Amino acid sequence: MTLAASAAAGGIDAGLWKITTVVETGGRAGPPRETSKCLTADQVADLPGTFSPVANTINSTCEPMAHSFDGKKLSWHLVCKGQLDMELIGEFDFDSPHHYTGMVQSKASMGGQDMPGSKNTVEGTWVSACTQ
Asked: Of 102, 104, 113, 122, which shows the fewest CB atoms inside 10 Å?
């Protein structure tokens, strides 16, 4: 899939992305954190695979991940049970070839005791082609 085809299909362009993340735990938001990531043509051609978690737990079993993707909006829900019970919910909106927003919420408990949940809010902005 070419970059133009990716953009026309409602996706995002490959390239260097600036990602701003705000983590909120226990109702308190931390300072914004900026990172950069180079996304390849293969990664942007598979947005659900690129922006969904991989279930990799020890002593817990994860249900098959529920997800939906319409070319612009991605949502997923992952539940794992066992030594650590965990629930992850994610929503991403790829609103232009050079911009996306997203939110990932997590809840967990161990031995019946709830652990502090978190909410990560992300915003991605395309910067340039990758130089690699």
From this structure: 113
Q: Which of 5, 8, 2 is nearest to 72 (CA)?
A: 8
Taking residues 77-95, report their average pLDDT. 93
Residues in the chain: 132
Q: What is the pLDDT of residue 5?
A: 36
Q: What is the mean pLDDT of residues 57-66?
A: 85
CB 82 within 8 A of CB 59: yes
Q: What range defines the domain where residue 62 resides?
A: 3-128
Q: Which two tokens stand for residue 94?
A: 């790829």
Taking CA 114 as the corner, what is the angle to CA 109 and CA 115, rounded to the nearest 5 degrees? 80
Q: Which own/partner contact pairs does 24-28 have at CB distance under 8 Å and 24+ positions apart?
A: 24/118, 24/119, 24/120, 24/121, 25/116, 25/117, 25/118, 25/119, 26/116, 26/117
Please count the structural domains in the chain: 1
Determine contact, residues 1/45, Cβ cutoff 8 Å: yes
For residue 19, give the nearest of 129, 123, 132, 128 by alpha carbon: 123
